[in-house]
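Hey forum,

I'm writing up a methods section and want to include a predicted complex as supplementary material. The small molecule is zinc ion. I've pasted the protein sequence and the SMILES. Can someone with a working setup run it? I'll credit the forum in the acknowledgements.
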Amino acid sequence: MLQAEIKSLFKEDISILIKIPNSSKHYLCDCGEASLLTVKEVQSVSAVFISHTHIDHFSNFDGIFRHQIGSGEKVVICGPKNIHQQIESRLKSYTWNLIDENTIEYEIREIVSEEEINIYKIRPPLWNLELIKTQDFLFEDEYVNVDFAILDHKTHSIAYLFKEKDSVSFNENGSEFKKGKWISELKSAFEKNEEGKQIEIEGIVYEASELFHLLTRNEGYKLGVIMDHAAEEGNYEKIKTVFGNADMVYIETFYKDEDREFAIMNHHSFASASGKIMKECKVKEAVPVHFSRRYTESDRLEIETAFYKAFRED
Ligand SMILES: [Zn+2]
Ligand SMILES: [Zn+2]
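Reply by user p_vandermeer:
Happy to help. Structure tokens for the complex are below, copy them as they are.
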């Protein structure tokens, strides 16, 4: 299953790395300071997901591309409205006279609305943006589909849901046949819904649908990352639509309950509000992240206690 690791120390800004099982590829959520992120991990990042470009979420973007330049890879960057222009300005602020055009390619996916994603390419040494197309979905590769919600934080803040693809497993105990290559043929027929496909086992031909009872569909793991958002109903409706029944969600919990007036003033969330919305979403596990830097360890404990009380309350 997908695994997330918080790469920022307490008092640092926020950066979360998502590792894919049986793959050396990673996804990175936000580019805050991240002392725990290694160069090797950065070089394995195939896609970066930016919630919004407040400095605490974007300041380490330079540190990330510093280690990606030269890889020759294509890296996808998803982010809110205008992300393409902000990345262009960051890249253009350096001198690139010794770099050729094949050292890296960024594909930027600008989330304009739920149905409108603009795809741009940008590559060295000139880093001029090229609009490729507009599409109605954000991200899909061989491992995951990524769904999202556009939350309000006095600016768009994108919350991402990584949905691992469903897998199909073979129920060994329910079968009296000898194992063979027919199992993978059957799985493929099941995935493509080819009920009439002929499957031969030990010299006898069966229709695929007669054997489907030997397979089980396992729903893919759902991992969410919800960054800065105002603790208000409009956001909660969107969060419930996208993150309901997720397996694990990391959610911004910038303030203690005692400081909720700052949360309201700064369009942020606070401990019990984040815990409560996670409970309403019926997520299996939830983790509060991204605390105000002025807080001490004991403030952090206070946040976690109030968060889990609201999350687990009957
Ligand atoms: Zn913010
Ligand atoms: Zn923030």
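Some notes you might quote in the supplement: The domain at 1-165 is CATH 3.60.15.10 (Metallo-beta-lactamase; Chain A). The longest helix spans residues 297-312.
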